[in-house]
Amino acid sequence: MVGTLLDALGPARGRSLLDVGAGTGELVARATGAGWTATGCEPEPTMREVAGRAHPGLEFVAAALPELPFASASFDAVTANFVLNHVVDPRASAREMTRVASHGGLLAGTIWTSSPSWFWLEVCERAGVMPAAGERLPAHKDFERTVGGFSAMLTDAGWRDTSTIEQTWTWEAAPETLWSSAEGGVASAGQFYRSLDREERARFRSGFDEACAVHARGGMLPLRHSAAVAVGRAL
C-alpha cells in the first residue's frame, strides 16, 4: 500500500512530503529514497523508536492528528496510511491535512474496509483474554467504512477532486513486524494489548506465537485485506 500511495503522488521532483501516523517509518523511508524531502509524525514513542532504529537519519516528529505542529501550507503532499479510520475525529483530521498542505497540494489516505480481525480474535482465545468489544465514534463524527463513505467524509473535510478506489490483497506479514505494531499500540490490536496488565500481556504474546505457528507459511503470515485508497487536493 505504501507503493500505491507514492505512485499516486507522482514523481518527487524534490517536493516535500509529510506522512502522518508514520508507524515504522516505511513510507517516509521509501519517499526519501524516491527523491522526496520527507518528514514523518508519529504520536507513539515506541513506534518512533522503531522507526528511528530502522531508518536512522530520517525525521520523525512527536505529533498526531487532528492538531499538527506545522505552519499552514508547509508541505507539497500529505499522506495518512491507515490512520483516518483510527482517529477520534476523522473529519477534523482530514481537514488538518489540507491545512498543512500547500495550495493545490496532494493529499492521499487509506482506510481498512476489511481486515483480518479473525487472527487477533484467535490470539485472544489462545491467550484466554476477553477481546475488546470496540467502540464506535459518535454518529456525527463517524463515517461508513466503504469506498463511498470514505470519499464522502473526505469531501466533507474539504478534500477536492478526490478519487477513491478499493484494493484487495493478501499481505505476507512477518510475525516480528506484526508484533512490533501491536506492542507499539498501533490500531485496535495494539490498543487492546496496551490495555492489558503485565500477566495478560505475557499470555497475549504466547497466544500470538501459537497462532503464528499454526498459520504461518514459510515464516510469513498470509493475511487478506481490503482497503479504500483516496487521492485528492487541498484548496
TrEMBL record:
One of its GO terms (biological process) is methylation. GO terms for molecular function: methyltransferase activity. It comes from the Bacteria. The keyword tRNA-binding does not apply. Signal peptide: none annotated. Residues 18-108 form the Methyltransferase type domain. The keyword Methyltransferase applies. Pfam families: Methyltransf_11 (PF08241). InterPro entries: Methyltransf_11 (IPR013216), Methyltransf_Superfamily (IPR050508), SAM-dependent_MTases_sf (IPR029063). Keywords: Methyltransferase, Transferase. This is Class I SAM-dependent methyltransferase. It comes from Microbacterium galbinum.
